């Protein structure tokens, strides 16, 4: 099997891919989970690139909206057993600010929620460059839904 040559020179030096799930879509809703994968671009040419992972589930301090729970699957009773976001906020901030580019699907949504939680925890907002995969997909103009769940609005 011939191995395809990967061009890495056009990528930023490092990237963090992240996603959040929330109690809903409103201004009073909170994050219930954060997932992130960080990578150094030059490592992609390795058979096994070194990746950094961070996955956390939180007590949002409020009930899920019914539709949100159906999407992310975390019940209110399970979430009440977790730490609040603030307990891990500094680790999340350090993780995300350690990489040159942040990548997320529906990035405006995710970054808005992350920055609000960081602010509530007394930390500065994220100022890194952001790439939105949803906008990137839509720019290809291939039709179909850019949402990751058919028939659902992007979270």
What labels describe this entry?
155 residues; alpha/beta; five-stranded mixed beta sheet; 5 helices; disordered N terminus; disordered C terminus
Q: Helix and strand string, N-terminal first?
A: EEEHHHEHEH
Strand order of the largest sheet: 3-2-1-4-5
**Which structural class should the secondary elements be placed in?**
alpha/beta
Shape: globular
pLDDT under 50 segments (min length 5)? 1-5, 149-155
Total number of helices? 5
In total, the number of strands is: 5
How would you characterize this protein structure?
By secondary structure, this protein is an alpha/beta fold. 29% of the residues lie in helices and 22% in strands. It has 5 helices and 5 strands. The chain has helices at 66-72, 76-79, 85-97, 107-120, 133-139; strands at 14-22, 31-40, 51-57, 101-104, 129-132. The longest helix has 14 residues, at 107-120. It is globular, with a radius of gyration of 17 Å. The N and C termini lie far apart (39 Å). Mean pLDDT is 87; it is low at 1-5 and 149-155.
Topology:
Layout lengths: L13 E9 L8 E10 L10 E7 L8 H7 L3 H4 L5 H13 L3 E4 L2 H14 L8 E4 H7 L16
Concise overview:
The protein has 155 residues and is of the alpha/beta class.
